[in-house]
Design brief:
The chain is of the alpha/beta class and about 450 residues long.
Length: about 450
């Protein structure tokens, strides 16, 4: 038995050396899953006579894999595809043939080392644990049985890596993937919020779809066309979506992400209090291959608001060229975004400011700095009922049209008036009510 343990320890020592020799992809193993794997290797290598510590750490590794619902093999490939390192960053901006030779060779070396670690699969690990802990049978292996289905560039590269004898031969394909799909947080998430001076990924963005939004087809189609200009690499316009509350302005912007997420569109929500950081955000996105909508909801400004100046710089530009992969889509219930009071209007003799009318005109015309202003009129009865019927059909609500219309109008009267938001609230309530009655 001691010879088997010695052999197991020697195998583990080899894998530890390979992990330690990584030049660029060290962070692949600096996550809870990767660190648990390294801890397990160390426990096997330094196992005590009982093997208790080894069993304990194996259980921890198993638990982490199960909680993330991912196999060790798929985890490694996922980390490689999104890893942010000097090679993946330069591969986004430079053609493969122009990358530094040393950088390519380092990436090739790391891929070969990672393939050896990849080949240290669950079956092999459990055999080593069984040998070191002197168990009668190997521990349970965490595995998934779902078949892989897909046609995306990610799926294609995953399949290529799993079938290659030498991952070093995939370095050019990997560089092309980074160039198309990006790395780091932009490869991991589709939607973000700017919080505390940094981008935070949103794991579960609003799932609203364009097919759910009816009643405002003209502004919707214009916004879709402008977004497609952005995705195609043409200059796209900043857009102000102006109109009555509850008309679906915010939902329309969010729905664009769900329609175009597979075409490298990303959505970044920036709160009004963080608009001062807009120039900083835009500069971070300049060299990234994805296309970005910076989404500002319910936009308005008070007197002498610094956020006004920051947004103005992004909309109008300054000495720095505007990146073509970023647009601002803002929603507002007010056509003139800066609040104006009657006392703000300068009297001919009383004002201390020589060009006071020019100052006021600048404030009132701020919305004109958006290339497009899309108007969402209040929903009349016909538009409101059109939205109701559309949503009811999508939700499979089976009641007579007359009853549906009557109840929808009663709901609007008693609640928040006619709007797309009110329609959605009514349909959700009706679906729940019918579901309870039908039980």
């Amino acid at each position: 038995m001691s010879s088997l343990i010695s052999h197991a320890v020697a195998q583990i020592r080899t894998v530890q050396r390979q992990a330690a020799s990584l030049l660029l992809y060290q962070s692949v193993l600096k996550t809870p899953v990767g660190q648990a794997f390294l801890d397990l290797l160390d426990a096997i290598h330094n196992s005590d006579t009982t093997g208790f510590k080894c069993l304990e750490i194996y259980g921890h590794w198993f638990s982490i894999l199960a909680s993330q619902n991912i196999t060790w093999e798929d985890y490694l490939i996922t980390q490689i595809l999104k890893d942010d390192n000097p090679f993946s960053r330069q591969a986004q901006r430079v053609e493969f043939a122009n990358l530094p030779v040393a950088l390519v060779e380092a990436a090739r070396h790391d891929l070969q080392m990672l393939q050896s670690i990849y080949n240290c699969r669950g079956e092999q690990i459990t055999k080593l644990v069984r040998t070191v802990a002197q168990l009668s049978q190997a521990p349970i292996i965490w595995h998934l049985e779902q078949p892989e289905i897909g046609f995306s560039s990610e799926f294609s590269l995953r399949h290529q890596l799993k079938s290659l004898d030498n991952w070093g031969n995939a370095v050019e394909a990997l560089a092309a993937y980074y160039r198309q799909c990006g790395t780091g947080i932009f490869a991991q998430y589709k939607a973000f919020q700017w919080r505390g001076g940094e981008l935070v990924g949103i794991a579960h963005p609003d799932p609203v779809q364009l097919t759910q939004l009816v009643g405002y087809e003209s502004p919707r189609d214009t916004l879709i066309k402008n977004t497609e200009f952005l995705l195609a690499g043409y200059p796209a316009l900043h857009v102000l979506l102006y109109g009555s509350r509850g008309s679906g302005k915010s939902s329309l912007v969010k729905a664009l992400l769900n329609k175009y997420r597979d075409r490298n569109l990303r959505l970044i929500e920036v709160g009004k209090s963080d608009l001062k950081d807009l120039p900083l955000i835009v500069e971070q996105l300049r060299a990234v291959p994805q296309k970005f909508i910076i989404f500002v909801d319910d936009l308005s400004f008070e007197e002498d608001d610094d956020a006004f100046k920051s947004l103005k710089v992004v909309l109008e530009g300054n000495v720095t060229a505007r990146p073509q992969n970023v647009v601002v889509y803002a929603t507002s219930n007010r056509r003139h975004l800066i609040r104006e009071f009657f006392e703000d209007r300068p009297a001919p003799k009383d004002s201390d400011e020589v060009q006071a009318w020019d100052t006021m005109e600048e404030k009132l015309s701020f919305s004109d700095r958006f290339g497009l202003t899309l108007t969402f009129e209040p929903a009349d009865q016909n538009t409101y009922l059109k939205i109701i019927r559309h949503l009811a059909h999508q939700e499979g609500i089976n009641i007579s049209l007359d009853d549906l219309d009557y109840r929808a109008l009663q709901w609007a009267t008693r609640h928040n008036g006619r709007s797309g938001r009110t329609a959605r609230q009514f349909i959700d309530y009706l679906r729940a009510e019918l579901g309870i009655v039908g039980q």
